[in-house]
Amino acid sequence: MAFFNEMMEVSLEGLDAEISGLINSELERQRTHIELIASENFVPRAIMEGMGSVLTNKYAEGYPHKKYYGGCEFVERIEEIAIERAKKLFGADHANVQPHSGSTANQAAYFSVMNPGDGMLAMRLDHGGHLSHGHPLNFTGMMYKITAYGVDPETETIDYGEVARLARECGPKVIVAGASAYPRAIDFARFRAIADEVGAILVTDMAHIAGLVAGGAHDSPVPHSQFVTSTTHKTLRGPRGAFVLCSAEYARDLDRTVFPGVQGGPLLPAVAAKATCFKLAGEPEFKSYAAQVVRNAAALCARLRERGFRIVSGGTDNHIVLLDLRSKGITGKAAERALEAAGITTNKNAIPFDPEKPMVTSGLRLGTPAVTSRGMKEEQMGLIADALDEVLSAPDDAGASRAVRSRMAELGAAFPLYESVR
Ligand code: DSN
Fold first, then answer.
1. What is the count of structural domains for the chain?
2. What is the pLDDT, as a whole number, of residue 2?
3. Stated pTM of the model
4. Do 218 and 304 belong together in one domain?
């Protein structure tokens, strides 16, 4: 018994040095590498405190004041605060803060209004959409009749006339707006007009741009969509998790679909951290952050264009820059690997009409949410773009790779990360 009590007080390092060591290595990687994965960010320490709290010990199936467990006095207050803050931040009628992930959030929105076999019109993955927007290997592709829209071959932007034509042709139950690799602003009013014309429900997945929406750097989908789904860990800079907003008429259906429909007990540490995330995203500093994310993406894009890269769609309106690497004679896969060795983290990504396979690709997706959280500005975006070009112009030059890696570590050290952590 004494051993048990003592064990309860021992640190991770003391109990499991192997895992503790790997977490420390990951911390060091985050500090020394330049993080350009568009869907990643660095959360404030306060968010990590919520995530690593005693809330992990508690079950709270159900909703505030209608829980299936005792002892929920404090956790239901936390959930109520998270709900109220989400509604206020985005101006929504109703919020459900329990979904564990973006995919589950989308599942909850779809299941609230769709039956198997119903039609869905959504963006194709290889033009910038998401797996949970109808990919054949995803539950959406298996359950629903999918019609996919893509981007125009010339402009590489969404052709709303084509979306309207497809909507009239297939008469979907749901139209999905939103993307995970689309660098341009999305016109949600146009989507809603198309949905209304064909009697469809508009579900917007704003996961990538949620922080820009909260900070006023992208138009909000909330006034135009019956459902808005999102993760909290991308531009919104919160914990790994998700939420769904909806108009009042769907509130009951949504809540019933999340629990007991697709989930059991909510992950309460994440719910608490989401509440803190919504609070921080409503503060004036977050507006400056969101605006800087967009300015940094524009600066990165401009310098890469000067360096001869072809930018998909010709530019960016948000946090994403999508590169077509074909003019540089390198695949996305090889570029990702060469940059990783040189201390720059990115991900290979299909570009519209990509001739390469999904595991190879001709594209590279870059994003500025994480570097902006470190305090980097336009000047540093220029340095990063130059480094990226240096590496991709000579991907097999080990000396050049080492030189860039040490420059990137110096850049990281000039913008310290988590100094108070361990
Ligand atoms: N896989 C995420 C991304 O990287 O965009 C979206 O869920």
1. 2
2. 58
3. 0.97
4. no
